[in-house]
Amino acid sequence: MESYATAQQVFAAGLVFARLGAIILLIPGLGETYIPARVRLSFGLALALMMFPVLGPAAPALPATTGAMVGEVLREVFIGLMIGAILRMFMLSLSTAGELVSLGTTLSFAQTANPMQAQPTPTLATFLGLMGVVLIMATDLHHMFLAAMVRSYSLFPFGREAPVGDAGQLAIQTLGRAFALGLQLAAPVLVFSLVFNVAVGLVGRVMPQFQVFFVATPLNVLLGLSIFGLSIGVIGVVWVDRYRDLIGTFSR
Q1: How many helices (H) and strands (E) does the chain have?
Q2: Which of 114, 151, 198, 209 is 20 to 30 A distant from 145 in Cα terms?
Q3: Going by C-beta distance under 8 Å and a sequence separation of 6 or more, which residues neighbour residue 194?
Q4: What pLDDT sits at residue 251?
Q5: Residue 118 scores a pLDDT above 80
């Protein structure tokens, strides 16, 4: 390797690849499970080689021992996984909204194989998840991913201790925000479901001989999906704005 790069350069490039590769494995769009891991890591390696001239000079000196070198690499991998996991966690807001809408429209048992989670999920949750990935690419949020990767070296420079406590606190806050946003996105259908079920209950009490469920179930599905379809544009706009704010915490 000495003919092409010094040991210090190889070590610095490895540190850059450790963090960027870990981020690429988890971020939405590029880090989906249906994309082979080799393809994701190859993209991470190419990205690391492109960014090495900018990030490499800030890398620490080559450690004298193997243990210290492994520690530096593991630290970079941890930071990369932390950033990628935080960005991935916010995608749960769309899954939560889809689950709640499915419950409100009695479509929870209508499940489809979710390519992003590699397991069956309610069809509406799968649809919203795929819509989120499309919105990320259509609104150029993936460009902010690249900015966040570069900015992470200012927030978490080489050689500093891994922010384990801050990472845990940020993960808890992100999960809370994702669940709250999912509830807000599904609120129109949930309100309709509550009012509709109360009305159906009153009709069942007033007219015991009336086949309530025979009439109510198709109406619940039809009207619930109609409200969901009317609100899908607002769901996309609100979710993109909130996600852009989250990415901005890393890229500012």
Answers
A1: 9, 2
A2: 114
A3: none
A4: 60
A5: no
